[in-house]
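REQUEST
  id: r-88c1
  op: predict_structure
  target: Intradiol ring-cleavage dioxygenase
  payload:
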Amino acid sequence: MKKLRTLFTVLLLTTGCQAQDNRTKLDVLQHVGGPCEGCEAIHEYGEKTLSPVDTLPAFGKPGTDKLKITGTVYQQDGVTPARGVILYIYHTDETGLYPKRGNETGWARRHGYLRGWIRTGPDGRYTFYTLRPHTYPSRTEPAHIHITVKEPDKNAYYLDDFLFDDDPLLSQKIRASRANRGGSGLVSLQKQGDLLMAERDIILGRNIPGYD
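RESPONSE
  id: r-88c1
  status: 200
  body:
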């Protein structure tokens, strides 16, 4: 009987410690990056095998500007490439709308089908092929590309949108208001053949609330 009581006590302590560890991890995850509406969409890649390169639907669509977005994801030191990091992007089409097919589920009902996911390799590099988005029909803000990041040991959090330096709606006030989450999201486009090239490096945790 004494042995049974001892075994029960050990199991109880072990279970309690594990539960405490899980609660601690959950508490940390809830605070990194602050609130993030729609960050759950980073998990909506389904059965797709993620790689460092993704081509979004409508890439090469006639009448649109083809865009290549590339860069390196670094760890917090800004030097060491970060492996196994998922990036999720979505944006408007050439009309300034988030296009739908009508059968969307989850966050695709708001984000549309122009979205993609990558997972970085050992060198931290990433590349998206897509089309250049247009500003909303209301022209209330510059054209942009939303981006969310998911590290292996962190919850998903959002980064500063990609903005284009040549956008006439990109005012000095908007430039000055940027939080530079993950580093600056402002990119200058370079022409390479029939591609517009945008390069942005990302530093994990840079200007992210609650990041250790």
